[in-house]
């Protein structure tokens, strides 16, 4: 198999019919870059997964990088995986069964084994993504040879990776709300403190007189002039 061009390596899917007839009908492992229309595909991650290996005057030839070890990336052309690996780019905004991905802002990758969901990765960690591609490819090749059974995830429920993402996002949202409440409480305390200080400064110009009940009953109320003399005395 000759090295392929980029448009042959990753097929863009933007309709329910194409998803059903092209992606789900594809045998072996399919790696799908899922993106909402408002965000678009992650070009940075795709450029790390698919790289040009030969530049020609007409068009470059691409390969897929599916192995990673430490700081050294070992690349091999798609022909080494044969027909066991396929790449797709899917617009979640145009495909009904991908509706739960429409609010995802992070790069999202689905792994399908002969049309069945086997894994989902959310994030932009290149080594982890490449490791998943390699791992899922080996698993699917064993399934195709009859050496293992495919472990399928429910397509209508969140995968463990998505649950982890949702829990992390919920924790961040909770922390953000708590920090917002703390800022609001601090601002309110500052306003009250300024008001208390203003009242305390104004009280220096006033005298507070306390009349006990028995003084009122016996009529022993001092006159205003007496109060003024008392307050003026050292």
Automatic annotation (TrEMBL):
Record PANTHER family: NME/NM23 FAMILY MEMBER 8 (PTHR46135), NME_NM23 FAMILY MEMBER 8 (PTHR46135:SF3)
Protein name, per record: LOW QUALITY PROTEIN: thioredoxin domain-containing protein 3 homolog
The species this protein was found in: Thrips palmi (Melon thrips)
Encoding gene per record: LOC117639696
